[in-house]
Amino acid sequence: MRPFPPKKMLIINILDILKRYSDAEHRLSQKDILKILESEYAMKADRKAIKRNLMNLIDFGYDIEYRESFRKNKNGEEETIYTDWYLVREFSDAELRLLIDSLLFSKHIPYSQCKALIGKLKGLSNEYFSAKVKHICNLPENMPANRQLFFTIDILDEAIGKGKQVAFAYNDYGTDKKLHPKRNSTGEVRAYIINPYQMVATNGRYYLICNHDPYDDVSNYRLDRITDIRLLESPAKPMKKVNGLENGLNLPKHMAESIYMFAGERVSVKFRAQRYLAGQILDWFGRDVHFLNDTGETVEAFVKVNEQAMIFWALQYGSHMEVLEPVALREKVKRAALDIAEGYGGLQ
Question: Contact 77/89 with Cβ under 8 angstroms?
Answer without folding.
Answer: no
